[in-house]
Specification:
Blueprint (H helix, E strand, L loop, with lengths): L2 H6 L4 H17 L11 H12 L3 H4 L2 H10 L9 H12 L2 H11 L10 E2 L6 H4 L1 E8 L9 E7 L7 E7 L7 H18 L10 H19 L4 E2 L1 E6 L3 E7 L3 E6 L2 E4 L6 H7 L21 E2 L7 E6 L5 E5 L1 H4 L4 H10 L2 H14 L24 E8 L3
Helix pairs in contact: 2-5, 2-6, 9-10
Length: 387
């Protein structure tokens, strides 16, 4: 019986996490020789794992992998990621909060899951670019209805596609819609010849592709809908498409600017000058969108063209982030941390950050406090690194 089986059979959750933490520490001992036996290596490596959720330090080292398998009595060929997800949660929140979350959810907690498809077709350190995405189920919901992808063209390494979709929680099978739209966009992108760059009629092409995907979704999955925010980047221009309340931001000289407009009731309040953008997070109706793809959606998308030199990076997010984390806090997280840690820190803030309240108003029929982790949270980022 391995450690995880012991846990399922009734091993105390805190003892389980402590034993798993010991396995983690033991495994890292095997990787020390690659880092000149620095005295604080183990501590720094554990901090890296806890902050990022990545265990590649272990998985890429044969001795470390064998150490974990041995500790688990050799029953598993793969390192148990659920085990380490529990360790991460246990080590990063107070024990009473951990137990409260665990008892409420009733299952191992994963800060991130497999619904994000990341690019593996180029070496971004050599290209002086960074491209990645993250998604998490959050602390309340059982299913992740978000889906994300970041990929590079097979015919032109300078052209990338970022996609973030948020399946509509109020409509049946939201996770089906988000995955369907993401996959169909990826299929189109992978089969399109970009060897001569992005064509001049890309606006018409993108709208036609979205219309086709929207019609296919309606036929494929009745009562299924999703938001979409996506970016098609090149050396000359970038095209951002959007429908629903997921957002694309651009980063320039440390500043954050929203490119898209939300298709939502509360965005109309903002445009009419009734509320500030930050206040939108506290309005009870902020989950009501006015357009989408799929059931009830028009299939029409906003298309924005950005000049190549108008941004340093792009950030695509679902409302599981923007309902909790203000634009100002997103900008602060970006400016105060290493770029390769930013997405993990952003998702961590969305699900485990400090709850906020609207100071100038009481909670009433219109306003209420935000609740971290109440929704799935997903982000994708493209960043031009300085050479």
């Amino acid at each position: 019986m391995n450690l995880y089986d012991e846990y399922k059979c009734g091993l105390d959750i805190t003892l389980y996490c402590e034993k798993a933490y010991d396995i983690l520490t033991s495994a890292l001992e095997f990787t020390k020789k690659y880092y000149d036996y620095e005295e604080d290596y183990i501590k720094r490596a554990i901090d890296y794992i806890l902050k990022t959720g990545k265990i590649d330090i272990i998985t890429r080292n044969e001795g470390a992998r064998e150490s974990v398998k041995l500790a688990l009595n050799g029953k598993d060929e793969k390192i148990d990621r659920e085990l380490f997800a529990m360790v991460m949660c246990y080590q990063t929140v107070p024990i009473d909060q951990f137990l409260e979350i665990y008892n409420k959810v009733g299952r191992p907690l994963n800060r991130t899951d497999s619904r994000a498809i990341r690019s593996i077709t180029t070496t971004f350190s050599e290209a002086h670019e960074y491209l990645d995405c993250r998604t998490t189920t959050g602390l309340i919901r059982q299913n992740n209805e978000d889906f994300a992808a970041t990929i590079v063209s097979k015919t032109n390494e300078h052209i990338k596609l970022l996609v973030v979709c948020d399946g509509m929680g109020g409509i049946e099978r939201g996770e089906v819609a988000s995955q369907f739209v993401t996959q169909r966009l990826m299929d189109w992108f992978n089969n399109f010849d970009f060897s001569n760059g992005i064509p001049g009629n890309i606006h018409k092409i993108l709208q036609a592709v979205i219309n086709r995907i929207n019609n296919q979704l309606k036929e494929y999955s009745y009562h299924s809908g999703t938001t979409l925010t996506a970016a098609l980047t090149s050396e000359d221009y970038t095209y951002v498409i959007n429908v629903g309340d997921s957002r694309t931001y651009k980063l320039k000289d440390g500043e954050l600017e929203q490119v898209t407009k939300d298709d939502s009731i509360v965005w109309n309040y903002y445009m009419d000058g009734k509320f500030s953008k930050d206040e939108l997070r506290f309005i009870r109706q902020n989950n009501i969108i006015t357009d989408c793809l799929g059931d009830g959606g028009s299939g029409k998308v906003q298309i924005h063209r950005l000049e190549e030199d108008s941004y340093d990076g792009l950030l695509l997010v679902t409302d599981g982030i923007t309902d909790i984390v203000s634009d100002e806090k997103i900008k602060r997280l970006y400016n105060d941390n290493d770029y390769d840690q930013f997405l993990d820190l952003l998702l961590h803030e969305a699900i485990s950050g400090q709850s906020e309240f609207f100071e100038d108003r009481k909670e009433d029929i219109d306003f209420c406090s935000t609740r971290p982790g109440k929704d799935n949270a997903t982000a994708a980022m493209y960043l031009k690194l300085k050479k």
